[in-house]
């Protein structure tokens, strides 16, 4: 039984002390691969560097909505160059949780990266935090792309629309929380052929490890909870979600 973590920030500073150890240790936890999103240009470069070094590490490149104010004039052009060695453009999207002052800039950068993905025929990985209406309005023009909604946490109506558009959904550690009602609903309703697992490490640590730093080796807890919710064998959840990740990212 092999698992794939479709979204983990192993290049974040929280892993500076043991990043390489974790990557080498993944196979001991039946983890076939980890896919690392980019949040800015420097981080995207590091993702690509590690992807060239490790066969079980795959890079995404992109500008996260929370990083748009710090980006340089040529950053998107550099991201496009890096994309030849990446499996997706991500994570990209909108985030209105921390601030709404950058809404217009976020939208501009989001659309530019969606256009980039279309030009390069790359999948996209979407970040959405308290911006569902704008996310859906923009993505309605990009239904031709392969789209993963990372860390899905919105309502059933939104989920149905995403399913109608052919998008994929990835679910993380929140599904193990008592508060994760939307995540549990998604875990039950998403067609198994459109579902992926993620940790969003170092964030959203699943139970029973909540309060500790998250890392991809804890993804089994997400898989177990989804298997419980769906009334499926853990091995079947692992088989399908890994198959979906391989096909979506062309691993």
- Percent helix range: 25-40%
The backbone outline, from C-alpha atoms, is globular
Number of helices: 9
How can the largest sheet be summarized? 8 strands, parallel
CATH superfamily: Metal-dependent hydrolases
Distance between the termini: 17 Å
> What would CATH call the class?
Alpha Beta
Number of domains: 1
Task: Classify the fold: give the CATH topology.
Answer: TIM Barrel
Which ranges are low-confidence, i.e. pLDDT below 50, for 5 or more consecutive residues? none
Helix and strand content put the structural class at: alpha/beta
Secondary-structure element string: EHEHEHEHEHEHEHEHH
- Using only C-alpha atoms, the radius of gyration works out to 17 Å
Task: Let me know the number of strands.
Answer: 8
Give the rounded overall mean pLDDT: 97
Under the CATH scheme, the architecture is Alpha-Beta Barrel
Strand residue content: 15-25%
Assembly status:
single chain
Query: Strands across the major sheet, in which order?
Result: 1-2-3-4-5-6-7-8
Topology:
Elements: E1 3-5, H1 19-25, E2 31-36, H2 41-53, E3 57-61, H3 75-82, E4 88-95, H4 103-120, E5 124-129, H5 132-139, E6 147-149, H6 156-164, E7 168-171, H7 181-189, E8 195-197, H8 219-230, H9 234-249
Parallel strand pairs: 1-2, 2-3, 3-4, 4-5, 5-6, 6-7, 7-8
Helix pairs in contact: 2-3, 8-9
Would you mind describing this structure in some detail?
The chain starts with a strand and ends with a helix. An eight-stranded parallel beta sheet has the order 1-2-3-4-5-6-7-8, sandwiched between helices. Helix 2 packs parallel to helix 3. It is globular and about 50 Å long. The chain is 40% helix and 15% strand. It has one domain (3-249): TIM Barrel (Alpha-Beta Barrel), CATH 3.20.20. It contains nine helices and eight strands. The model has no long low-confidence stretch (mean pLDDT 97). With 251 residues, it is of the alpha/beta class.
């Amino acid at each position: 039984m092999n698992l794939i973590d479709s979204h983990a920030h192993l290049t974040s500073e929280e892993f500076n002390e043991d990043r390489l150890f974790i990557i080498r240790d993944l196979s001991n936890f039946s983890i076939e691969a980890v896919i690392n999103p980019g949040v800015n240009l420097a981080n995207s470069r590091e993702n690509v560097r590690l992807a060239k070094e490790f066969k079980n590490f795959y890079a995404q490149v992109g500008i996260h909505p929370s990083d748009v104010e710090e980006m340089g004039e040529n950053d998107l052009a550099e991201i496009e160059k890096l994309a030849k060695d990446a499996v997706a453009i991500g994570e990209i999207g909108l985030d209105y949780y921390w601030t709404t002052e950058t809404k217009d800039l976020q939208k501009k950068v989001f659309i530019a990266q969606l256009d980039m993905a279309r030009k390069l025929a790359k999948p996209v990985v979407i970040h959405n935090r308290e911006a569902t209406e704008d996310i859906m309005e923009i993505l309605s023009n990009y239904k031709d792309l392969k789209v993963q909604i990372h860390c899905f946490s919105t309502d059933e109506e939104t989920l149905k629309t995403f399913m109608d558009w052919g998008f994929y959904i990835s679910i993380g550690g929140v599904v193990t929380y008592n508060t994760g009602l939307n995540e549990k609903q998604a875990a039950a309703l998403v067609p198994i052929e459109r579902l992926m697992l993620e940790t969003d490490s170092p964030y959203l640590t699943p139970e029973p490890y909540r309060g500790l730093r998250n890392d991809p080796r804890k993804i089994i807890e997400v898989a177990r909870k989804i298997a419980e919710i769906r009334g499926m064998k853990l091995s079947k959840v692992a088989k399908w979600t890994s198959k979906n990740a391989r096909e979506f990212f062309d691993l």
